[in-house]
Design brief:
120 residues, alpha+beta, VC0802-like, 6-stranded antiparallel β-sheet, 2 helices, 6 strands, CASTOR_mTORC1, A9CJY8-like_N, ACT-like_dom_sf
């Protein structure tokens, strides 16, 4: 987990934002929606809606597609703490966006349940 702050945006159209190449970025396009997760400082001008102030927790991968229950276990721990998460998966990893106000409590709860959490 770094010190970056992320946002979840809803866009009118697909226009790739300028961003730090090493930062996490996720663009999802469905029939009726375009969603972008990017560093907060890189929010494009054409956003319709935005949710700000997320921290990013990354499940270290690569994770084999046959593995079952990894996100379920993590989300169950956080649900018991009443912590909302926004999950995004890539080919090799799972990423959880957690409100910055909840990140300390999230890390503590995960560690108490045997998860190793490394801060970067």
């Amino acid at each position: 987990m770094g010190n970056e702050t992320y946002a979840v945006c809803k866009l009118d159209e697909v226009r790739f934002p300028r961003t730090n190449a090493k930062a996490f970025l996720s663009l999802t396009v469905t029939e009726g929606e375009v969603s972008l997760v990017c560093e907060q400082e890189s929010i494009p001008e054409n956003v319709k809606e935005v949710q700000r102030d997320f921290a990013l927790l990354k499940v270290e991968g690569p994770l084999d597609f046959s593995l079952i229950g990894i996100l379920a276990g993590i989300s169950s721990v956080l649900a018991k703490e009443k912590i909302s998460i926004f999950c995004v998966s890539t080919y090799d990893t799972d990423c959880l966006l957690i409100r910055k106000k909840d990140i300390v409590q999230s890390i503590q709860a995960l560690r108490e349940h045997g998860y190793e959490v490394y801060e970067r």
